[in-house]
UniProtKB/TrEMBL annotation:
Cellular component, GO annotation: membrane
Domain ABC transporter: 22-263
Entry keyword set: ATP-binding, Cell inner membrane, Cell membrane, Membrane, Nucleotide-binding, Phosphate transport, Translocase, Transport
One GO MF term attached to the UniProt entry: ATP hydrolysis activity
Pfam families according to UniProt: ABC_tran (PF00005)
Keyword Disulfide bond found: no
CDD domains (UniProt xref): ABC_PstB_phosphate_transporter (cd03260)
Source species taxonomy: Bacteria, Pseudomonadati, Pseudomonadota, Gammaproteobacteria, Alteromonadales
GO biological process: phosphate ion transmembrane transport
InterPro entries: AAA+_ATPase (IPR003593), ABC_transporter-like_ATP-bd (IPR003439), ABC_transporter-like_CS (IPR017871), P-loop_NTPase (IPR027417), PstB-like (IPR005670)
SMART domains: AAA
Protein name: Phosphate import ATP-binding protein PstB 1
Amino acid sequence: MFKLFERETLAVDEISQAQTGIDVRHLNVWLNRKVVLNDISIRIPKNRITALIGQSGCGKTTLLNSFNRMNDLNRYHKCDGEVWINERNIYDRKERVATLRTQIGMVFQRPNPFPMSIYENVCFGLKIKGEKNRRVLDDAVERSLKQAALWSDVRDRLFDSALLLSGGQQQRLMIARALALSPEILLLDEPTSALDPLTTLHIEELINELKKQCTIVIVTHNMQQAARVSDYAAFMHHGELIEFSDSDSLFTMPEKQQTEDYITGRYG
Ligand SMILES: Nc1ncnc2c1ncn2[C@@H]1O[C@H](COP(=O)(O)OP(=O)(O)OP(=O)(O)O)[C@@H](O)[C@H]1O
């Protein structure tokens, strides 16, 4: 197995509550009356990268979307169970979903910059939250672009349209946009599937750096990528969590036959 970065991992049953970033307890999700997630319980480790893997349609994106209640946008969505983040069950009736979403960054498969300048893209969320102080916005833009390894590419053209950037630069801009709000959790849904191998490598290096400050969950179809970048991996099948362990174990000695069949390419 090709490992890109050194890992410090515990066995998943040794991860304490304090080391847990997202604690999912008996989560069931229905979309249009169809069961899409079936009794999922998983503790996603804090400040680590967890990959969600499995065949198309197994529920990876739905699970990812349940961490920032994006599934609520589907009016035919129903769920029960609990998702605990920072000692709060985010499905509690008192939870303010808009605030929650500002604390959790999300990057999608295809970069979706707004048709505005690079600068405005990065500080968009801060402005929505009411930040008007120019100095604060300038600092946040510079910090986020540096963290996303894009600053040196764009520092002289911050007020050019973001749509003029290359695909890889746009994806790094999307990461900077998420980082501007200093999220504790970063959700990545196939963030490199539209990028070439070299740009993918740069984004993987960046993701590895970011785990110092965020808990990262990444959905990927690319087994090599999951093995390269993740500290932990969860294999899903037909809406169920089949196996969850540190990535070294899961990719070299999976416990379940279904996991082995998937990672060795026998199906999926
Ligand atoms: N809006 C919806 N209404 C009904 N069913 C849906 C809806 N969105 C997704 N589904 C179904 O839920 C299941 C899980 O979808 P999901 O997108 O979470 O899977 P996935 O593992 O991320 O798939 P992929 O790897 O192809 O992106 C699939 O069977 C899908 O058809």
